[in-house]
């Protein structure tokens, strides 16, 4: 059952992807028509197989196909873009790097893994810069986690950012509990939380 149920699945089994991709450039012309399939699962399978061909023509085919995609907010469109970027990174196709740099600032969840896949000094430097930027802590933590998987030296930074993200989330929850505003700044929530715990309203106490 390859129905999409919240996690991207693939209509081409992994062994078949590798078998097809083993033909390298010769497999590209056979795989490209699957990008025009009516099902996102088949498209994902084709993209993953193309990413294993090590062919420049595969990168060109993917880029051309991406140019035909219409902007959409649905989940399937997101998966198409995500898998395309990962396939291009697997092919080490440098033509996608400018797009990834832009996406890192706008949609980091789409850019971090492809940049890490390149595993070049330049792409690692881009990710390191992002980790120390003013981007959201959870996004910087995601980048640190990916880098830690490549280089254990980033594990400490990953743990630090994970802890910071947890603190920020707890602060947002306190803000909502006390003032009904996630973005409200409360320097010392202790007295307000204590007051809620003494509140006669059982629902409000339970929320605390």
Helix share of residues? Answer: 55-70%
Which overall shape is indicated by the principal axes computed on the Cα atoms? Answer: elongated
Mean of residue pLDDT? 83
Order of helices and strands: HHHHHHHHHHHH
Q: Would you tell me the structural class of the helices and strands?
A: mainly alpha
**What's the N-to-C terminus distance?**
43 Å
* Proportion of residues in β-strands: under 5%
Count of runs of 4 or more consecutive helical residues: 12
Estimated radius of gyration? 22 Å
Could you walk me through the main structural features you see in this protein, from its secondary elements to its overall organization?
Helix content is 66%, strand content 0%. It has twelve helices and no strands. The chain is elongated, with a radius of gyration of 22 Å. The N terminus is likely disordered.
Brief synopsis:
This protein is an all-alpha fold and 208 residues long. Helices cover 66% and strands 0% of the residues.
